[in-house]
Design brief:
Elements lengths: L1 H10 L7 H17 L3 H11 L7 H14 L3 H10 L1 H6 L3 H17 L3 H21 L2 H14 L3 H10 L2 H6 L10 H12 L5 H15 L3 H17 L1 H11 L2
């Protein structure tokens, strides 16, 4: 934290003149506060990072909207993302396009616009299937499948997972810093809802993968978010799973 306080003081002296350097600094500081769960402070610095529209604008915007969603400000996040759609159309970066689309779907879902989230996700996937599967498939499908679950389109979740072997691909991420069994959980939930697997098999999938990740506090919060997704479809089962995982 002390290094950031020092940099804050340096920026006030007008030693630095690069708006790009300042935007990058504000974003990095926002991410630090986000990890510390200091969401109001993180939001402040993220807003500072998007004051100037440069090539990193969409990246910083997505970070801001992620913080807003965590902080219960989904309406604000949706307004920002909707206003920035022209920026997405003008960028040539598939990384930025897919990142924005993924969080736009997530933001629509958070605002209970399930059908619009599914429609947007479907259209985007049809237009950028190759790029999604090559670059940021896990991020996109995590958001798109969440929207499909909220809209009770369980068979489509299963179909996507099987066709593109997403659960198997996700297992290859095991052990990496950002790994979470999102697709495995969403697929297992869908299979249970469709009567393809037993309750015991569903519970076994969730508890085995969940217990591996609970040693990390940040991941623990993510697991709790996934349990909330299950609770939308199966509130009683979600409570039991939470108890078994010691949440």
């Amino acid at each position: 934290m002390s290094i950031y306080e020092h940099l804050d003081n340096q920026f006030r002296t007008n030693i630095f003149y690069s708006k790009r350097i300042m935007a990058n600094y504000y974003h990095n500081r926002a991410m630090m506060h986000s990890k510390l769960n200091e969401l109001d402070i993180a939001e402040k610095y993220c807003f500072l990072s998007i004051r100037q529209k440069n090539s990193d604008y969409l990246f910083y915007l997505v970070s801001l909207c992620g913080i807003l969603l965590r902080n219960g400000k989904s309406t604000k996040a949706l307004r920002l993302m909707t206003d920035s759609i022209p920026e997405v159309k003008n960028t040539n970066s598939f990384h930025s396009k897919i990142g924005f689309a993924s969080f736009y779907i997530k933001t629509l879902t958070a605002n209970n616009q399930r059908e619009k989230a599914v429609s947007y996700g479907t259209t985007f996937f049809e237009g950028y299937k190759k790029e999604i599967l090559e670059y940021r498939w896990h991020l996109f499908f995590s958001s798109f499948m969440q929207a499909l679950l909220r809209d009770e389109k369980y068979s489509r979740v299963i179909s996507l997972a099987r066709r593109y072997k997403l659960v198997a691909k996700e297992k290859h991420l095991l052990g990496k810093a950002m790994y979470l069994p999102v697709i495995a959980w969403y697929t297992s939930l869908s299979e249970y809802m469709e009567g393809n697997i037993s309750k015991a098999k569903f519970f076994d999938t969730i508890t085995k993968s969940g217990k591996i990740l609970l040693t990390n506090q940040h991941r623990k919060q993510k697991i709790n978010n996934l349990l909330n997704d299950i609770a939308h479809a199966l509130p009683k089962e979600a409570k039991l799973l939470s108890k078994e995982l010691g949440m």
